[in-house]
Write a structure and sequence with these properties.
8 strands, alpha/beta, 9 helices
C-alpha cells in the first residue's frame, strides 16, 4: 500500500518521505513555490495525484480544476465530488471524462473518483456506478461520507472504524473490483484490516506530520488530534520535522505490509 504524505506548505520536502505525491488544487493556485514543486515532480516522472480540495473545504469549481489539470498534467486527477451527493458527483465525473476526451488527454491522465452519498444505499449506488465507468481507474474512500453513511458520525470521528465496516461490506458483496484509495487517515491502527488485499492501493494523510507537530511519536503512542483548518499554513520547528520524518517511516512500514 502506497503512502502520500501531506505536510504544511512550508515543509514540502517532507512529501519526499512518502511513496507518491498528493497535490491540492487550492494550494496549487495560491502558492507559486507549491506549483513549481509539483511541476518539477511531473517532469521528474513522479506519480502525482491532483485532488480537487473539496475534502478540505476548498471552493474549487470544475472549470478551475480542469485548467489546473491541463497546466500540471498529473498522473491522476479527482473530478469534483459533492459531499453526500451521489447525483452531482457522478455528473461531474462524466463531465470531466468528456473534457479530457475532447482534449485527447484520457490516455495521459487517469480518473480517480470519490464515492458519495447521504445514506448507505445511496453511497453504494454511487460506488457501483463508478465501478461501471471504464475510465474510472481508482475509487476514493472518503473520510467524511463513509462515517456519515455508516454511523452518522461527523467531524473526523470514527474514520478508521467505519471505513473498515464499509470495506467488509464491499468485500463480502464481491464489490472490490478496482483500486481503492483511503482519503485521509483514521489513524495508524486502521490499515491492518486491509492486509493482503492488492486492491487497497494507497492512502494520503497528514497524520504523521501533524502528530509530530503535537509532540506525538508513533514509537510510543498514538492519539488522534483533529487537523485544524489552517494546517497548511502552519510552521514546523526543526524538532518536529525530525519527529515527522520518523513518524512517516513508521507509518510507511505499517502501510507497506498491507
Amino acid at each position: 500500500m502506497k503512502t502520500f504524505v501531506i505536510p504544511p506548505v512550508s515543509q514540502l520536502q517532507l512529501m519526499d518521505c512518502g511513496d507518491r505525491y498528493f497535490c491540492l488544487t487550492q494550494l496549487y493556485i495560491k502558492y507559486a513555490h507549491y506549483r513549481e514543486f509539483f511541476k518539477q515532480k511531473v517532469i521528474d516522472g513522479e506519480f502525482v495525484l491532483l485532488d480537487n480540495g473539496i475534502g478540505d473545504g476548498a471552493p474549487i469549481t470544475q472549470d478551475v480544476l480542469y485548467e489546473v489539470t491541463k497546466d500540471l498534467m498529473p498522473s491522476e486527477v479527482i473530478p469534483l465530488d459533492t459531499l453526500f451527493d451521489s447525483r452531482r458527483t457522478l455528473e461531474n465525473v462524466f463531465d470531466f471524462i468528456n473534457r479530457l476526451r475532447d482534449d485527447n488527454l484520457l490516455d495521459k491522465i487517469d480518473i480517480f473518483a470519490v464515492a458519495q452519498g447521504n445514506t448507505f444505499d445511496e453511497w453504494i449506488y454511487c460506488y457501483k456506478a463508478l465501478l461501471s465507468i471504464e475510465e474510472v481507474k481508482t475509487i476514493g474512500m472518503s473520510k467524511l461520507s463513509i462515517p456519515w453513511v455508516v454511523s452518522r458520525s461527523t467531524k473526523d470521528t470514527n474514520i478508521g472504524r467505519d471505513r473498515n465496516v464499509m470495506y467488509d461490506f464491499l468485500k463480502n458483496s464481491g464489490l472490490i473490483q478496482k483500486s481503492l484509495h483511503m482519503l485521509g487517515s483514521g489513524g495508524v491502527d486502521e490499515y491492518e484490516h486491509y492486509k493482503g488485499d492488492p486492491f487497497v492501493r494507497s492512502s494520503d494523510s497528514c497524520v504523521a506530520v501533524w502528530s509530530a507537530m503535537n509532540g506525538i511519536s508513533f514509537d510510543e503512542s498514538y492519539k488522534r488530534i483533529p487537523t485544524p483548518k489552517n494546517y497548511f499554513d502552519l510552521e514546523i520547528n526543526e524538532q518536529a520535522v525530525a519527529l515527522a520524518i520518523e513518524n512517516i517511516r513508521i507509518f510507511k512500514d505499517i502501510l507497506s505490509e498491507v
